[in-house]
Amino acid sequence: MRLAAGLFALLFAGIALLVAGDSPLLAIDRTVNPALAGLGGPALVPLFQAISAMAGGVATGVLAGVAALAFWAKGFKRAVLGLALAWAGSIGTIVVVKPLVARARPEPLAGIVETGLSFPSGSTTLAAGVYGVIALLLARTCRTGACRWMLALAALAVVVLVGLSRLALGVHYLSDVVAGALAGGVWALIGALAAGAPRPRAPRSR
What we know:
Blueprint lengths: L1 H19 L3 H13 L8 H9 L3 H17 L5 H23 L20 H18 L5 H24 L5 H22 L11
Helix pairs in contact: 1-8, 3-7, 4-5, 4-6, 5-6, 5-8, 6-7, 6-8, 7-8
């Protein structure tokens, strides 16, 4: 898990350096974006907006808080630390890196209003960080490999859908989304490492 977090961090840093410089990655972004912006036509815009809203700062903060209460109630108290690290770390990365890279957003779809800078995608970062750490913490309670795979696939599906929604709305480049997933993944893994494994409850005395 530590190795994966380190690898994700290196990949994120590499993409940030490429985006900040004049690299072929920028040409790829400019090619991919027109193909995905407006995906599915106007009818799907409200759906993509709803998916994006699932990964907003407030929404993920509330989700992390509810999950923390649930884990605490089940006796997995260190999960609260893991969730706090994943959410706060993701927010911190967004706040620090966006002005450093200072990448302007692409032209969004008509009627879509987004403010702020583009790199990394904040929604994708938070989706990977918060939904990812919840999946990792829940996996600690699984008794079968199938359970762990289902949680992993569910978290991955959320991240992919959020990233796709940002591209379809035309408010991010592909590299913004990929970098956001990597950054959030780092914080999800850090949160899971900090939380450790749930301690078995002591049997009640009769």
